[in-house]
Amino acid sequence: MRPALLAASLLAPLALAAPAAYAQDAATRLARDALIVDTHIDAPGILMDTWADLGVEAKDREFDYPKARAGGLDIAFMSIYTSPKQDADGSAWQVANAMIDGVEALAQRHPGKFAVLTSPRDVERLRAGGRVLLPLGMENGAPLGDKLDNVRFFFERGVRYITLAHSANNRIADSSYALEKTWNGLSPFGREVVREMNRLGIMVDVSHLGDASAKEAIALSTVPVIASHSAFRHFTPGFERNISDEIARLVAAKGGVIQVPFGTAFINPASAANTQAHFRAINDFNKRNAELKAQGQPELDRKAFDKTWDEAHPPLQSTLAQVLDQLDYGVKLVGIDHVGIGSDFDGVDGELPPELKTVADFPHLVAGLQARGHREADIRKLLGGNLLRAWTAIEAGAGK
């Protein structure tokens, strides 16, 4: 080969690689400059199970301080999650308070790295010096019990959104996963809870709710509502856990935001179908055990059930493109001002797109948005501007 051709052939791969590298550098710069708000990270639950110091690198976690700084994450809503089982056995209040204590301890242990955030007014002041801010979102209203005063109690503890129900109907609302609905809307107590949340300035979160419960919560609220981590049902027909076009439009019309998660179970249609089937199978399993118990017979083994299910339903894969499809669809459906991100990091057992495995990977999301032609101003809205606008409006409406 002639020297000139040889040189050209050697340089060709570099020429092809340069634009891609430049694009990723530009995405990283924007991710670190923009204000990124993730409305759903399940770090507190894992801390309760297996402690780790999230102020330094924690290799088995999807959220920690070094990863957050690498990815440009500024505001990470810590999920105060309690289960239907904890609701049933009366431990949800204790568990929620222990999780809040854990988040507070993390901030106190690393005052130069973390701060608990309770108002959008404090963002700029508290993030000075590179802190990652930790507002609290309560996933499942179970810790409220049946006491309306507990809404104020948890507000004073720092909770700034409440997902009214989770994977089972509760005292407040119906779950999207429940095959049989209790309230077909909100309970009488649930209506009082929404009014009190409005009065105090706590965001009403309609993720996880059955459709009728979500519609009533949106209609009753006097301020914007959010969906803290809900993908669009358009891609997963029949999967009530994801938000319908109708309800997404209602959220937007109220001034709220739909925050798109990254978990495979939400964005991969086949995985969503498996998730829905799993809850139906559990429902049947529980009914059968109730029958056996009533007959005085030995109950079926839940561990054996889980093992058999997992073997028949291995984890599926998802992609960054599927997350981008969700965001693009949401923007087309309800407008650029009503879509954001609620990853569900540390809450989906690592079942995430390979490009979005931890909070360090937000630049990949930004690069994908740039490649699809989104303007910088719009990317900033999706990354956090929209959520902060809605939160500010909800706070401004408190007491009115």
Topology:
Elements: H1 3-33, E1 36-41, H2 43-49, H3 65-71, E2 73-81, H4 84-89, H5 92-109, E3 114-115, H6 123-127, E4 132-133, E5 136-139, H7 149-156, E6 159-163, H8 188-200, E7 203-205, H9 211-220, E8 226-227, H10 245-253, E9 257-260, H11 264-267, H12 269-294, H13 302-312, H14 320-334, E10 339-341, H15 362-371, H16 376-396
Parallel strand pairs: 1-2, 2-5, 3-4, 5-6, 6-7, 8-9, 9-10
Name the descriptors:
TIM Barrel; 10 strands; 2 domains; alpha/beta; 3-stranded parallel beta sheet
Q: Kindly state the mean pLDDT as a whole number?
A: 94
What is the CATH architecture term of the largest domain?
Answer: Alpha-Beta Barrel
Q: How many strands appear in the DSSP assignment? A: 10
Give the helix proportion (percent range). 40-55%
Radius of gyration, taken over Cα atoms and rounded to an integer in Å: 22 Å
Describe this structure in words.
By secondary structure, this protein is α/β, with parallel strands linked by helices. The chain has two domains: 33-267 and 317-396, Metal-dependent hydrolases (TIM Barrel), CATH 3.20.20.140; 269-316. 50% of the residues lie in helices and 10% in strands. It has 16 helices and ten strands. The protein has helices spanning 3-33, 43-49, 65-71, 84-89, 92-109, 123-127, 149-156, 188-200, 211-220, 245-253, 264-267, 269-294, 302-312, 320-334, 362-371, 376-396; strands spanning 36-41, 73-81, 114-115, 132-133, 136-139, 159-163, 203-205, 226-227, 257-260, 339-341. A five-stranded parallel β-sheet has the order 1-2-5-6-7, with helices on both faces. Helix 14 crosses helix 15 (362-371). The longest helix has 31 residues, at 3-33. The protein is globular. Residues 2-12 have low confidence and may be disordered.
